[in-house]
Amino acid sequence: MSIFQPGELGSLALANRIVMAPLGRARSDVRSRSPLPRVATYYSQRASAGLIVSEATHVSPNSVSRPGGSAIHSAEQVEGWKAVTAAVHAAGGRIFQQLFHLGRKAHPACLPGNALPIAPSAIAAKGEAETPEGVKPFPVPRAVERAEIPALVEEFRQAARNALLAGFDGVEIHAANGYLVDQFLRDGSNRRRDDYGGSVPNRARFLLEIVDALIGVFGPGRIGVRISPHFTLDGIGDSDPAALYAHVAEQLQARGIAYLHLIEPDSIEPARRLAPRLRQLFRGALILAGEFDRASAIRALGQGRADFVAFGRLFIANPDLVERLRREAPLNTPGEATFYSGGDHGYINYPFLAAH
């Protein structure tokens, strides 16, 4: 199987098997968190990807990250995203919106009323948050009450409705990298004693309720879920990730969603890889992500480990990455200093290949 071969993902036919991974770039309006015109330019430049997954997008005013991060919970934000999806579609591309809630990785200095962030349990993440007063340690969050959980699910449902209004082809639930959904999944961050904690099915309940809510908006063929079993940097972890993600895969298969997006770098030793088992349990499309290059992506598809491969950093610096990979052409080097710096530089001014 070639990465340049067309593929089916849920109810969509994609031009190739190269996915642009979700990449937060902090280029939205600082006040409204609505995408600015340069965001439409950025994504349309990269529309040759078989699928673009947007930057992680906040579903709630109570989930607030660095200045310039984007959101999808207001009418103004919907209008801003309409310009983005229109530009991508005009360029022949497909784009899903990634939806997330920070949970314990927010900070009171950024939240309305300086409220404590929420989490399944009152366990702080390791690391620091960017705040208006500078970088500060993540606080101990407030354990969310059982009665509050339906409203959190509803925030995701409304965000999906907004994404549909904005013209997205589908939505991806960010259940990875230590954010709220991931916090519920893993027993290192979820010590609840109610029906959202303890057993694997209980810890997966929050994710699956969100999936069911979003299916009611887009249908199963336009829903994806991103997971990161090997991510532990902020202190999150699980005592039995193989069992946890096997259950998640089985439940997602039962719902018939479009794809499972697995962050599993090629550097993970074969004995620890979960992709082979997840592919047995989940028969929708499997997207692999994690520092892949041309050779390792071709190898992963050739070995049958995935149906699509997502590229992140390479897409930052190479708007025409698909063509560069096709030609085995030299790649631009991403400038890390401009990843979150704001403005057009390091965002929409990376050069394209010459026509010939």
Low-confidence runs of at least 5 consecutive residues: none
Give the second-level CATH assignment, the architecture: Alpha-Beta Barrel
C-alpha Rg (nearest Å): 19 Å
Query: What is the count of distinct domains?
Result: 1
Task: Say which CATH homologous superfamily is assigned.
Answer: Aldolase class I
Percent range of helical residues: 25-40%
The CATH topology, please? TIM Barrel
In which order are the strands of the major sheet placed? Answer: 3-4-6-11-12-13-14-15
The share of residues in extended strands comes to: 15-25%
Q: What distance lies between the first and last C-alpha atoms, to the nearest angstrom?
A: 27 Å
Q: Taking all residues together, what is the mean pLDDT?
A: 97
Order of helical and strand elements: EEEHEEHEEEEEHEHHEHEHEHEHH
- Count every beta strand, where a strand is a DSSP E run of 2 or more residues: 15
Task: Supply the helix-strand structural class.
Answer: alpha/beta
Principal-axis shape equals: globular
CATH level 1 name: Alpha Beta
Largest sheet: 8 strands, parallel, barrel
Total of helices: 10
Protein name: N-ethylmaleimide reductase
Family: Belongs to the NADH:flavin oxidoreductase/NADH oxidase family.
Domain NADH:flavin oxidoreductase/NADH oxidase N-terminal: 3-331
Keywords: Oxidoreductase
